Amino acid sequence: MGSEGPKAITIHVTGFKKFLGVSENPTEKIANNLKSYVEKRGLPSGLSLGSCTVLETAGEGAKSQLYQVLESSVVVSGDNKNTIGTVVWLHLGVNSGSTKFAIERQAVNEAHFRCPDQLGWQPQRLPIVVEDGSILKAKETSCSTESIFKSLKSKGFDVVQSDDAGRFVCNYVYYHSLRFAEEKGHKSLFVHVPLFSKIDEDTQMQFVPCQLNPIFNYINSNSKPNHLYKKISLEGACFD
Question: Which UniProt keywords apply (predicted)?
């Protein structure tokens, strides 16, 4: 018998619309242009780019939209829900105060918005998911941030690993996505990008597809226990 080929992996990407203080969100443009960009360059056999969606920059009021997007990756067959191959969610958000890309290792069960979201919600130290308990509880991604980081560094990108995705909408979406991924057997990763004035659009468009290969290679060579809970003690800042 021949050896098995690589696992089929579909990566879905999300970005965000504008919000207070950010009139042009780079992740909106990236998400809108990514499919055509990737089609011109191709992907490894077994790896496909799924949906590319732009989310409202809002928490509770846009939660139903978020779950509609997440559920779109689940195929309903009779009474059973099955995923086609391995599903990975790659969420992109902007940190307007940064000059580097940041691979986020975790999300925290706390919504603490320094300004209202685009639907007017401004929670203060509230748990994102009440049944998960403390606002100090964090969920970690099961993607190998270290291998992704090393791969991107080797390609010359100015990138860091981060344990603080803020307490604004990015963290809110990431926490829900990690929970959903755990339930469905998917994987989820969040990456912060700077404004185009800090790192230009062409470089950012190159950066995002460069994350796909190390994710693909890691899944096909390793497995890691799904999203782990842990306690944290440091309060994170709210990204713009």
Answer: Cytoplasm, Hydrolase, Protease, Thiol protease
Q: pTM of the full predicted structure? A: 0.87
- Distance of alpha carbon 19 from alpha carbon 115, whole angstroms: 10
Stated length of the chain: 240
Q: How many CA atoms lie within 13 A of 95 on its CB side?
A: 24
Across the chain, the runs of DSSP E, i.e. the strands, are 9-16, 47-55, 75-77, 80-82, 86-94, 101-104, 106-108, 137-140, 159-162, 187-193, 229-231
Calpha distance 83→76 (Å, rounded): 9
- CA–CA gap between residue 226 and residue 26 (Å, rounded): 30
Sorted by sequence, the CB contacts under 8 Å of residue 40 that are 6+ apart come out as none
* Contact status, residue 90 vs residue 152, Cβ threshold 8 Å: no
The pLDDT tens digits for 192-240 are 999 999 999 999 999 999 998 888 888 877 644 444 444 333 333 333 3
d(CA 56, CA 62): 7
pLDDT at residue 80 above 80?
no
Residue with tokens 């499919």: 35
C-beta of residue 144 within 8 angstroms of C-beta of residue 222: yes
Q: 9-231: what CATH class?
A: alpha beta
Q: Give the integer Cα–Cα distance in Å for 108 and 115.
A: 18
